Recover the amino acids of this structure.
């Protein structure tokens, strides 16, 4: 898959994920979130001390991003596409 095909498949997967009525478990939602952000190179980590006390949602997102921080954008896009195909029906 060349770069343009990968980008098109990534955007198609993102559209599919955003339009789905399927209710996904929180751990899968976090995987999708982290891989989408990393694939778009929008995963700038905020300092952990900036997460407000009792802000569990942000803490989980932060943790999901940390877990894949070594992944390249290309690898993240491929994994995002795979996850969407696996968890979201056609």
């Amino acid at each position: 898959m060349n770069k343009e095909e990968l980008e098109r498949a990534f955007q198609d997967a993102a559209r599919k994920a955003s339009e789905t009525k399927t209710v996904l478990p929180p751990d899968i939602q976090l995987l999708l979130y982290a891989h989408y952000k990393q694939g778009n190179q929008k995963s700038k980590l905020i300092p952990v001390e900036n997460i407000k006390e009792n802000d569990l949602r942000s803490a989980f997102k932060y943790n999901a991003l940390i877990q894949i921080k070594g992944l390249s954008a290309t690898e993240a896009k491929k994994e995002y596409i795979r996850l969407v195909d696996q968890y979201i029906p056609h």
